[in-house]
Amino acid sequence: xxxxxxxxxxxxxxxxxxxxxxxxxxPRGPLLVQDWQLFEKHAHFNRERIPxxxxxxxxxxxxxxxxxxxxxxxYSKAKVFQPGTxxxxxLRFSTVAGERGAADAERDVRGFALKFYTEQGNWDLxxxxxxxxxxxxxxxxxxxxxxxxRDPRSNMRSATHMWDFxxxxxxxxxxxxxxxxxxGLPKSYRHMNGYGxxxxxxxxxxxxxxxxxxxxxxxxxIECLTDGEAGEIVGGDRESHQRDLFNAxxxxxxxxxxxCVQIMPEAEAENTPYNPxxxxxxxxxxxxxxxxxxxxxxxxxxxxxxxxxxxxxFSPANVVPGISHSPDKMLQFRIFSYADAHRYRLGVNYESLxxxxxxxxxxxxxxxxxxxxxxxxxxxxNYEPNSFGGPVEDPxxxxxxxxxxxxxxRYDHREGNDDYTQAGDLxxxxxxxxxxxLFGNIARAMDGVPEEIVRxxxxxxxxxxxxxxxxVAKALGLSR
Length: 480
Ligand code: NDP
Ligand code: HEM
Description:
alpha+beta; 27% helix; 12 helices; ten-stranded antiparallel β-sheet; binds NADPH dihydro-nicotinamide-adenine-dinucleotide phosphate; binds protoporphyrin IX containing FE
């Protein structure tokens, strides 16, 4: 409070004499165009909003640390996994469908996007709070998302569109079952798990490849809301998740997650009864047990939401030596999609923004572009190869070859895929009370949906487990 007062300036640094009264001809006006300080103030204000994320627009984030407690150096040579290593992280949580001002306590998948500022560059693991997804081919992603967003005519969200799409896309059943279960409505971001969801790969010092899935198990315990509880919360507080996370960290009640992986030797992928690169499937724990590798703790709130959260960019393309991608076609497309979105949303130099800037040196030949606000490489050479000591490639970081074969074609991704067993397994592991809530949640979510669509969806529940279909039909008051 007793801080020495600073003089207000324009963005050009020129002292401002009056920030209260506009410049007018006489006390009654009109305004003078000469009042450029007033015009600058409004011109900047008019340009304050940037495009929101096309999905996952509403979110909250915090900084923290990933500490390695286990030893997985036999699977990955990544520096970030060296025993005892501590790495700074940024974790952004989000809901998927709502716009930037949407309420937090809504039934939806939650995003769980991590940026690890490693000494070998930024590793982004852009996951969700569910281990699977609604579709398995990237062709279907925009269609799916449109069913979650607003109807073009009514400008309202449409249960009919959602269930129409899901009932015509059986691969969605596993994720729909999670979404409609207790875990589809977490109490807060602290009380849910995170998953990398896709299969990724590890590469060890001998250049051997392993397939890997990432799991983040909340130490706060899983806690969820019923639809009724959420309705009451939203009535009083639209920012319940943001408030919970922000206050917990301000009060030094730092949330933590146990970090685990499942590992599959490279050759085993040929022999699993399911496609291990299919994003609608999990790897059963019985076959691939969780290996605990570390702990993730959030301990610092961002100082400025726009600079550090709205401008944050996470991309599945960003993997570091020792961690890589897999043939999962959804993951493959995401490798393109995110940086494309960032260039549109934040501009071509988005990775130079402080929150996205690697904490290790960056040596490259990209130059210029809008809002280039660092030294732009100074006078250093801007082409390669060159004779002036510019950065060069290092084959030591080459990945082992990936054996790929097959005729190029558009293969029907629904053919020969079992969309029902794992969804049924999930249904069967729920207690009778959890199943009852699942039936009720689905019945409420189907309110107003034409019976033809409802009956088509009931067929899918039936194939997962007859008791699943019977329970939903009963909750809907439908005869089977
Ligand atoms: P397990 O009995 O070993 O594991 C069951 C898993 O289900 C646990 O990870 C548990 O999470 C999780 N779970 C419990 N209730 C829900 C829910 N409502 N929504 C989402 N997850 C839930 O079984 P399997 O590994 O053999 O898998 C059986 C089924 O469990 C799968 O078909 C899948 O639907 C679900 N599942 C499996 C996961 C996996 O990676 N294998 C991961 C998450 C779900 P927690 O331990 O945190 O309580
Ligand atoms: C955000 C595309 C599937 C998790 C986004 C964004 C795009 C996108 C364009 C906005 C990025 C931005 O503006 O910063 C896609 C496409 C997918 C896909 C094309 C499938 C082909 C998935 C899957 C997951 C996921 C399977 C989780 C496993 C997220 C998260 C965010 C996000 C968490 C928010 C990131 C943040 O906090 O900034 N997605 N997505 N997406 N997506 Fe996806």
